Amino acid sequence: MADRQNLESRVPEGLLRYIERGISPYHVVEAAAEELERDGYQELGLWDSWSLDKGGKYYVKAHGSSMFAFRINPGFGRLQSFRIAAAHTDWPCMRIKTAPDMSQDTYAKVNVETYGGPILNTWLDRPLSVAGRVTLKGNGCFSPETRLMDFGRPVFTIPNLAIHMNREVNKGVELNKQKDMLPMAGQAASDVLNKGGFFLNALAGELDAAPEDILFYELSVYNCDKPDILGMNGEFLSAPRLDNLTSVSACVDGLLAGTERGSGVDMAVFFDHEEIGSKTKQGAGSSLLALVMEKICRSFGYSGEDCINCLLKSFLLSVDVAHGKHPNQPDKSDVTNPVFLNGGVALKAESNQKYATDGEAVGVVRSICDKNHIPLQLFANRSDVGSGSTLGSIASSFAVMNTADIGIPLLAMHSAREVMGVKDQEALSDLMRCFWQEQ
């Protein structure tokens, strides 16, 4: 109990809740929706006609794993702008394949495929479970039923090979995604395993449904480890899925805490598929953001040109994590632009536009932080070390507006467990709150 109290006293409750509940992109969206509804946000259908009110608060889900939440300020009028913060709901992991049943002697295994770019060896010897969305037979061919599901307990593990059988393991071993990353799911007699269908039957049992009614599933393997406070003085948080639940949590906190600024539209956007390039119907590399913005403007009778001008005047914060300087590999960071855990929010810039930040956008973010005493660090990649991109450059190429890339620093990004500074989440939430407050 004392450890749990220590955790809750140092880490924002919202982040802990998202780590616990955000076990698939679909569950992240559901957790955010429940929080928004408690604050009076009303759900809209993506393809419905919208009749919106000034002063209204709304959210819309897109294909189950993306979401748009927005507040229309009372003075919203023609040619006013949107202030948008965008994060992503996915993370690198394994996904269950169709017809996944495999066996080796008495061991049941499931066939998986790698999603995104996980650090594979960090997934070994962990307690793993499964969650996501299942499609079931419905009342008609074009109206299947969808349900979220979570096994809610450890059901898998991917065992390492003992050092006695792999004497070179500490010199580095390449893991084969098809051979070495197959989760062990159980043990049964060979006649049971050879019949097949053991995973589908187990899934049907969790859903209280008939196996033949399951048409498809989109299921993620997730790490069941609980968050832990680390450090001699409790400086760090170690947890799964910090990339990018830290950003989702901060965006929701900021949107709910931000007071109405009188004009414009305040919006938090959560895209899926950032880890695989964003080029999907619910990803940042689609026209989805621009379409939602246009629907909002059209609901107030604004013309097509008004909608375009409103979009062009808007501002986007791409909120994703940054690489903190590593204590054992300091030479991987830029020599003059490293960022540190507990040093505050990282503002990321890159001349090749992996990060979308430009001069005017930097000026806005720095002004907000200076005025509100929010700790801010400037991040740049080392010139000879490649780094990942974010959704900012992608989204702003479809919905053209000034954009800045920000986020909190992490160690071990894309590991099954990542590490952050406990102070940084509060700084990010404060920045998001002020982003929707300042004039």
From TrEMBL:
Task: Identify the keywords attached in UniProt to this record, alphabetized.
Answer: Aminopeptidase, Hydrolase, Metal-binding, Metalloprotease, Protease, Zinc
| Leading EC class | hydrolase
Q: Which domain of life is it from?
A: Bacteria
Q: What GO cellular component is one of the record's annotations?
A: cytoplasm
Q: Biological process (GO) annotations?
A: proteolysis
Required co-factor(s) are: Zn(2+)
Q: Please give one Gene Ontology molecular function term for this protein.
A: zinc ion binding
> Which Gene3D superfamilies does its entry note?
Aminopeptidase i, Domain 2, Zn peptidases
The answer, when asked if Zinc is one of the entry's keywords, is: yes
EC assignment: the record states 3.4.11.-
Q: Spell out the family assignment given in the record's similarity comment.
A: Belongs to the peptidase M18 family.
NCBIfam families in the cross-refs: PRK02813.1
Descriptive protein name: M18 family aminopeptidase
Source organism (scientific name) = Qiania dongpingensis
